[in-house]
Design brief:
about 1050 residues; alpha+beta; 6-stranded mixed β-sheet; 4-stranded antiparallel β-sheet; 40 helices; 14 strands
Length: about 1050
């Protein structure tokens, strides 16, 4: 296998991935001298730290030995002890003037050292630093720190600790982390300055935040004990940073025994920052899994009454955590006859925080309520009623009251006559089982003056209602009232929340009136959200269903652009209410019991909505078909072919599928499933590869089968389209490969070569969910296409071969780096370290034979690696025999996780844009609304999305949409992960035309300059720029 092997001449891989000099110059210039290569390799990353060498003693600077530099350093110190030579210095021109004292730094030079440290802090970069250099630099900083006088300026020591912490955050080995932590522990134990101690604690916190998984357990304990000692410091800044370190480093089994009560002691500190930090440290320990005793609850409740917002905020979070950690722990509350569950008491305290003066605290309280799902139903329902519920008061019977009287030893008096009678009027102070803060808490949140609080309250109400069906019914009226909020985001939140709990509720007529009134909202997002919500809910009566259908049709006439979401809403309504639709079918279709009504226009959007509603109801209640007029049967056949996703399959005569689709359906039934049929196609392709004659025709037949499979089964569209595109590129390579065998063969057209490269780019950039084997096969296919492209261009001799040669070299470098990354990640995978998200796709279990390149790839990389001067002619002569006799590349195995990024343009509509002509004065601008739905779009691909506008004179404009124009498509389960909707406005302008002509609008993915991959068919609009009218 061709890998980067060190050799005296510059290898191919070094030519491609090396940083200096540039890639293009390396191909066109002569080979660099091999003597200069080792200097580039040993160049150190932390050269800027060499500026500190003059401030170190000469003996220490020259006697230091790290790696292979010990001999040169020691010899330098023996020859001239007065000269300053550092083992880490590679550029002596940056060393300041000599004359600095060897043992201590003068007072006048302390300012210079501080300015130098500030400069180093601003310029230093820790990327990809070798571990040996990190250790050397850490030792240098440690030595310089020890030379500072304790009574000197503390800013120098603070900056040195900051540099040492930067090295610790970059270190990737346990050995280096242990060394740096040892330095910190040793230096901080001898430090007396509170400013330096505070900075040291913060530096340890930074190291623990980024590299805690590399710190051994014993060192976690040492660092936590060091921070515990600093809690006795007189500086509040040091105390706060020490609490941060304890929260990050303290082990879980020692937390309750040593640190929890120590931190709880500082909840009563005089400084508000210390109080807040103590609560935050307890929260951090709890989030890491440490056991927080339930007796901390009363301390946290007292802290909620603090005057400072930061303390109340952390106390509120601690109360919430303790309530969820110990829900059934009973606590004794003051002036209450019996104990309360902690989750109920904590829920009441969080509800009280909804009346806090601070906006941030009210938002936090509203958000925390949604996660307290173990609260009792009585407390939960009390949040929706501002009046105290008297049935929460536990009433004692006469026997219990008599026993209490006897136990007290008092005589009965006239005042106690008939004291066991039921109390009709209750004082609020006598009801102490539930705190008054929980009464109407969510109502207070929904009526808050700030939209952040209202939005958070709606979200919490939705979370609680999803787990409590009875609470969902109670909260329905309040969510419906939020449809009238003045802020659009709050209205959308209420709509989506009601959609999420729709399975628990049935809408009444009075509630529908408020909902349907919001359908005329000016915001298209609100209208589409209401369509989604109405499709998810159920209605109770025929009158309610008729109200919904009639209002949807009226709004559709007002906003024709909402037809797609209205169609989807009608489909859901028909599926959920088949019996109600059956009762209203005759009225909706205008069927007269005696007279035959005229046939309605099938292109009428209102009529289409009614048909979609009735047909989807007939899927669940077949007798509806007998109520349909005869003309409706013909309309069903048309709609079944034009809208297969909206109109289901029904047993209606005269509406059969096409012969080709039926043939594929029969084969799918014989295979048992789409996956088995796909595997059967792959087995046939494997047999075709063994043939020698008529192989291309058979492969084209298999390609058409893969294309039909994706059209029939939407779940298999991604895998089948990926394999179909891969097979199409393989067929093109095989056809062009024949042109390289003889000199007289006709060279294929430039368009055919461009189509091959476009297929390779499509495989590489428009498909997601690929594993390592799939990516490797795609890169090998592109390498073959690039090699074939270079060979054909050189043999054609009609165009320059420099571009194809450069593309081949870049493709080879890319696949080499990809395989090298695979080998590196495999070696790292053997260590028990956490794996980052970027490297997860490279560590999947692969099928045998899919994790290694084929013989053609290995031979080609070896040939290119051996070329010292990669010019087109030389590369052509080396790779020509390989390209002529290259065996076919095997297809990757079926991967059901593959998804393809594709788009569907909704506006401008393909059906209506041909009839409506956009007229504008020549030279001016016409704004055209553009709406498209994009499936399986990754977050990284949004920046590469383009809207291409092609005019009849072949002029093309490319528009880059704003990132805010991409919004996720909402479903009944919430936001879709990868499906987004692009809604924007495009501008058309041109000079005078004699007549209206078609302008094509298309969505593309810009993968590289000059290469754009189309994601959908173009939408065409009639555009007519008219001349300027003069004289009027």
């Amino acid at each position: 296998m061709a890998l980067a092997i060190p050799k005296p001449q510059p290898s191919f891989i070094e030519t491609i991935v090396g940083v200096p000099p540039p890639l293009k110059k390396l191909r066109l210039q002569a080979t660099a001298a091999p003597v200069s290569k080792p200097k580039v390799k040993v160049e150190k990353k932390l050269q800027v730290l060499a500026l500190l060498d003059p401030y170190l003693p000469a003996s220490s600077s020259t006697g230091q030995a790290v790696g292979g530099s010990s001999s040169s350093s020691s010899s330098s110190g023996a020859n001239n002890s007065s000269s300053i030579v550092s083992s880490s210095s590679v550029n002596s021109s940056v060393i300041p003037a000599s004359g600095v004292a060897a043992q201590t730094t003068a007072v006048g030079q302390t300012k210079e050292l501080l300015e130098l440290l500030v400069k180093i802090t601003d310029e230093i970069a820790y990327d990809n630093v070798p571990i040996a250099e990190l250790k050397e630099s850490a030792a240098k900083i440690y030595q310089l720190y020890q030379l500072q006088e304790r009574d000197s300026d503390t800013s120098v020591r603070v900056k040195l600790l900051e540099l040492l912490a930067g090295l610790g955050c970059e270190c990737s080995t346990e050995e280096g982390i242990i060394l740096i932590i040892d330095y910190f522990i040793y230096l901080l134990r001898k430090e007396t300055s509170q400013k330096v101690l505070a900075q040291g604690m913060m530096c340890l916190y930074r190291i623990g935040q980024q590299r805690r998984q590399l710190v051994p357990l014993a060192y976690n304990t040492q660092v936590a004990h060091l921070a515990k000692e600093q809690l006795r410091s007189g500086s509040t800044h040091t105390q706060k940073n020490a609490m941060l370190v304890i929260g990050r480093f303290a082990t879980c089994h020692e937390s309750e025994r040593q640190y929890v009560w120590k931190l709880a002691f500082y909840i009563d500190s005089q400084d508000s920052g210390v109080r807040a930090q103590a609560l935050h440290a307890l929260l951090t320990l709890g989030e890491r899994g440490a056991h927080l005793p339930p007796v901390l609850y009363k301390r946290a409740v007292e802290a909620m009454k603090d005057d400072y917002e930061c303390v109340r905020k952390e106390a509120l979070r601690l109360v919430h955590m303790l309530g969820n950690r110990h829900p059934d722990y009973c606590i004794n509350m003051e002036r209450q006859p019996e104990d309360l569950r902690m989750i109920d008491a904590a829920f009441s305290k969080v509800c009280e925080a909804l009346c806090d003066l601070s906006l941030q605290l009210r938002v936090l309280a509203a958000e925390l309520l949604g996660s307290m799902t173990h609260v009792s139903s009585e407390f939960l329902h009390q949040t929706l009623d501002k009046k105290l519920m008297s049935n929460l008061r536990r009433k004692r019977n006469a026997h219990e009251r008599g026993a209490r009287l006897v136990a007290s030893g008092e005589w009965s008096s006239g005042k106690r006559w008939a004291d066991d009678a039921p109390q009709e009027h209750l004082d609020a102070r006598t009801i102490s089982l539930i705190a008054s803060g929980a009464c109407g808490a969510l109502i207070h949140g929904l009526e808050d003056e700030f939209l952040e609080v209202r939005t958070a309250a709606v979200g919490s109400m939705c979370k609680l209602a999803m787990s409590r069906p009875e609470f969902a019914v109670t909260s329905l009226d309040f969510l419906v009232d939020m449809f009238n909020d003045e802020i659009e985001d709050v209205r959308l939140k209420a709509i989506y929340s009601l959609t999420a709990i729709a399975r628990h509720i049935v809408l009444r007529e009075d509630q529908l009136e408020i909902m349907l009134g919001s359908l005329e909202d000016y915001s298209v997002d609100v209208r589409e959200g209401l369509h989604l919500m109405l499709g998810a809910c159920r209605v109770s009566t025929q009158t309610c269903l008729m109200m919904v259908v009639q209002k949807l049709l009226d709004v559709l006439a007002k906003y024709p652009q909402d037809r797609h979401s209205t169609y989807a809403c009608m489909r859901k309504i028909g599926q959920k209410h088949p019996h109600l639709v059956m009762a209203l079918a005759g009225h909706l279709l205008y069927v007269h019991p005696f007279f035959e009504t005229p046939e309605r226009d099938v292109e009428d959007p209102a009529y289409l909505c009614v048909l979609i509603l009735v047909f989807n109801a007939a899927e669940h209640l077949v007798p509806i078909i007998s109520l349909l007029p005869t003309a409706t049967h013909r309309h069903y056949a048309y709609l079944r072919d034009s809208m297969p996703k909206l109109v289901p399959q029904l047993p209606i005569e005269g509406a059969s599928s096409s012969s080709s689709t039926k043939c594929i359906d029969d084969e799918l039934q014989a295979a048992g499933s789409s996956a088995e049929y796909l595997q059967m196609i792959l087995n046939h392709i494997g047999e075709i590869y063994t043939m020698t004659d008529d192989r291309v025709e058979l492969l084209k037949t298999a390609q058409s089968n893969l294309q039909r499979l994706g059209a029939i089964d939407s779940d298999m569209y991604g895998p089948s389209n990926f394999l179909e595109t891969f097979l199409s590129a393989q067929i093109q390579i095989e056809q062009m490969q024949r042109c390289t065998s003889t000199q007289r063969s006709r060279v294929p057209l430039k368009e055919a070569l461009a189509e091959l490269i476009r297929n390779c780019l499509k495989l590489q950039h428009t498909f997601s969910g690929l594993n390592y084997g799939d990516i490797l096969q795609v890169k090998q296919l592109r390498l073959r296409a690039s090699a074939l492209h270079l060979v054909l261009v050189v043999r054609d001799r009609s165009q320059s071969a420099l571009g194809p040669c450069q593309m081949l070299l870049q493709t080879a470098g890319d696949i080499s780096a990809f395989m090298r990354t695979r080998s590196t990640s495999s070696s790292f995978a053997e260590k028990p370290e956490p794996v980052e998200e970027e490297s997860k796709p490279l560590k999947l279990k692969l099928r045998p034979g899919q994790d290694e390149p084929d013989s053609f790839t290995r031979s080609l990389l070896s040939k290119l690696d051996a070329i010292t001067d990669p010019k087109p002619g030389r590369v052509f002569r080396e790779i020509l025999p390989l390209v002529q006799h290259a065996p076919p590349l095997s297809l990757p195995p079926a991967n059901e996780k593959i998804r393809r990024c594709m788009a569907n343009i909704l506006e401008p509509c393909p059906l209506q844009s041909q009839d409506n002509v956009i007229k504008v004065t020549a030279g001016l601008i016409a704004a055209v609304p553009f709406v498209a739905e994009i499936d399986n779009l990754l977050e990284s691909q949004k920046a590469d999305m383009r809207i291409k506008i092609k005019y009849p004179d072949q002029h093309m404009h490319t528009v880059v949409p704003k990132m805010t124009d991409f919004k996720p498509i909402m479903t009944e389960q919430g936001e879709h992960e990868t499906n987004v909707r692009l809604r924007t406005t495009i501008l058309l302008s041109h000079s005078v035309w004699t007549e209206a002509s078609l302008v094509e609008i298309q969505l593309c993915l810009a993968v590289r300059p000059g290469s754009e991959l189309e994601l959908c068919k173009p939408a065409k609009v009639l555009f007519a720029p008219k001349p300027v009218r003069r004289g009027i």
